Amino acid sequence: MIEFRDVHKSFGSLEVLKGINLKIEKGQVVTLIGPSGSGKSTILRCMNLLERPTSGQVLIAGKDITAPKTDIQGIRKNIGMVFQHFNLFPHMTVMENMTYAPIRVNKLSKDQAEQKAMELLKLVGLTEKAQSYPGKLSGGQKQRIAIARALAMEPEIMLFDEPTSALDPEMVKEVLEVIKGLAHTGITMALVTHEMGFAREVSDRVCFIDNGLIVEDADPAEFFSHPKSERAQNFLDMVL
Ligand code: ADP
Ligand code: MG
To answer: Residues in domain ABC transporter (predicted)?
Structure first.
């Protein structure tokens, strides 16, 4: 579903991705972990061309999205992304947030879009907030809405970039539960997180990123108990 072939990315003279090779099969959950500044967000952002690789290829469902004349909007429609900060439209209600793109981009009728939105609000446990504005929600609620909003486009791929890093500790669990509920339902997921217990529990594979490279790509149980590289061992010693 997602394939990187020798992807390099530089910002000016700073090379932040130094040859990433990665394959994520349909329905798999792959977690990227590693030190701050190692390139994790840049890898995720190359998956939907929020960043364009300097060289190498990114394939989505077998299609090279780095080729010239790619229909970027068409690709992005199929890839939901949830960031650390919730990015809800503050001047729209939850329902308006959730139906805006499905109506505009997927051409659903207002009724269809609202029906779909209510199903997803049920999934994230927030039906009673349909008419609320984001400003009235807690951080955990906002993030659950952001996930539901992304799902409203019925993407085949979901990207999560530190979805719980900006939350107060008591709200982390409710958001992780929602993500866990999505894992292994057929949707392909790539996520960056510092929640190591969660990564271990939910991932099919863990990729340890350091200094612009995938240093290890392993089964989570194996990675967390016996990391092969010294760099991963040092990282785990610091975070666990
Ligand atoms: P991570 O998510 O692992 O913390 P990032 O992918 O965000 O790392 O960043 C990797 C490196 O690229 C960092 O040194 C960061 O400062 C740099 N970087 C990221 N985005 C930009 C940008 N738009 N312009 C310049 N440098 C960037
Ligand atoms: Mg990041």
So the answer is: 2-236
User: Which amino acid appears at position 25 of this protein?
Assistant: E
What is d(CA 155, CA 123) in angstroms, rounded to the nearest whole number?
A: 16
Q: Distance between CA atoms of 114 and 100, rounded to whole angstroms?
A: 10
With a Cβ cut-off of 6 Å, ligand 1 is lined by: 11, 16, 36-42
Q: By the 8 A CB rule, do 117 and 96 touch?
A: no
Report strand pairing: 188-192 vs 29-33: parallel
State the DSSP code for 1.
Answer: -
- Give the type of residue at 220: P
Tell me the three state secondary structure of residue 48. Answer: coil
Quick one: which atom of ligand 1 is closest to the CA of 161?
Answer: 2
Task: Summarize the confidence of residues 58-70 as an average pLDDT.
Answer: 93
Cα–Cα dist 134/143, whole Å = 10
192 CA: nearest ligand 1 atom: 2
Whose CA is closest to atom 27 on ligand 1?
11
Task: Count how many residues are written for the chain.
Answer: 240
Closest ligand 1 atom to Cα of 32: 3
Query: Using CA atoms, how far apart are residues 227 and 233, in angstroms rounded to an integer?
Result: 6
Q: Kindly report, residue by residue over 189-218, the tens digit of the pLDDT.
A: 999 999 999 999 999 999 999 999 999 999
> Cα dihedral sign for 1, 78, 176, 235?
positive
Question: For the segment 94-111, what is each residue's pLDDT rounded down to a tens digit?
Answer: 999 999 999 999 999 999
Name the CA dihedral angle for 216, 221, 226, 227, rounded to a multiple of 10 degrees.
Answer: 20
CB-CB contact of 26 with 82 (8 Å): no
Q: Give the closest ligand to the alpha carbon of residue 51.
A: 1
154 token code pair: 């019925």
